[in-house]
Amino acid sequence: MTGTETSTSSPATAPGHDIRETVAERQAAGKAARKRAPRSALARWDEAARGHDALDTIVAQNAIRVPELLPVRHGRMVASPWNYYRGAAAVMAADLASRPHSGLLVQLCGDAHVLNFGLWATPERNLLFDLRDFDETLPGPFEWDVQRLAASLVVAAREDGIKAATADEAVVTAVEAYRERMARCAKMSELSLWYDGTHVDSLISYFTAADRGPIEVHIKKESRSRTHLGAFAKLTSMVDGRPRIDEDPPFRVAIDDDEQDALTDQLLAGYRMTLQEDRRVLFDRFTLVDVVRQVVGVGSVGMRVYLALFEGRSGSDPLFLQIKQAGPSVYESRLGRSRHDHHGARVIAGKRALQTATGIFVGWGSFQGRDYYVRQFRDMKIILDIKLLAPCLVEFAAACGETLARAHARSGDAVAISAYLGKSAQFATALCDFARLYADQNERDHAQLERAIAAGSLASAPGW
């Protein structure tokens, strides 16, 4: 199967082009995709044709979640249309699948909204800017990630009171940056593309001189505090001479000794075997000290998440690992099941396919019949929040658009995608119209959730 075919059963990562195809043939395949999904048609949104009820789609996701945390999930999502959008990836997945698509496959991030781009430290301790959330990753049409990003810019702009004209500019800038970066990727060698990334200095260069100061200050501050030592100082206390993670019910809750022992014997033992051999040697130098159950994010609330504290042999080098339940991607019901039988493995495979560099402790395991993936907690992971980005949303949108294109080009056919996009701003203009219409739809869906909570159909609790 080539990268221009529509998939009904998803491969581990999106297939690349057939090496026997010439550049001209790959360009022709990209242009032919315009017949399946005309660029101008992407501007339209028809609520009547979406084929599902948004509230039903949200509620259906509760089946695999911790029941007592569902009111917290609803409370976080109902807080604002922006929070709703962050938690409603399943709604948008169903909406996007109701429309014709290009068939130009990449490894989708699956939830490429504007705050799912951030900074973190590579194994070499360099700060890179990249996609950061892969719970919904699956091979699929490239434009679905771009549409998710475009609509998020309008929803986020409205959240912060940014003018509509500025939101439109941010969308066009992001999508044009995607198109232009994809055109450059189409001319790069495979190895050059694989090694390509956005260093923190390159991210800073997107902003105007007036905006760089606050951004740099924020990044430096966060890179110092969002470390294992920073988390240890903030989240732990000494109890009977041993460090323990502080409780903060219902957001951090202690688990009993039996559950902790079972988690160690089952999940962590299996996870250990998914690490590279050299990293397994390193992991074995740490001893588990404490585990709590944790509530994270918006869309992830209710999924079982553990925060585990390990201590190195010196006794002064803590390691925090986040162990997060992984269910099916919200796109699997639309694109076919993942080729990975284990959803934790699906998340990590997608993460590695999309990111320039990936943390040394990523892996997966199983516990009590559920799939989980594991990653380091914090470890210099930095998110630039909406209030900080408000004065420079357009510049940040450009960084996100370019980064998304580079990530997609690693697994998809940049030549075919670039040919589909063309040399004009037609794709960007269409997505600008779509983003406005979909932001309106998101507000209606958020209001539907508000009504359900007000009527008592859904329980809601303070989310933060």
From TrEMBL:
Q: Where do the segments described as Disordered lie?
A: 1-40
Name by which UniProt lists this protein: DUF2252 domain-containing protein
Q: Where is the composition biased (Low complexity)?
A: 1-16
Q: Which Pfam families match?
A: DUF2252
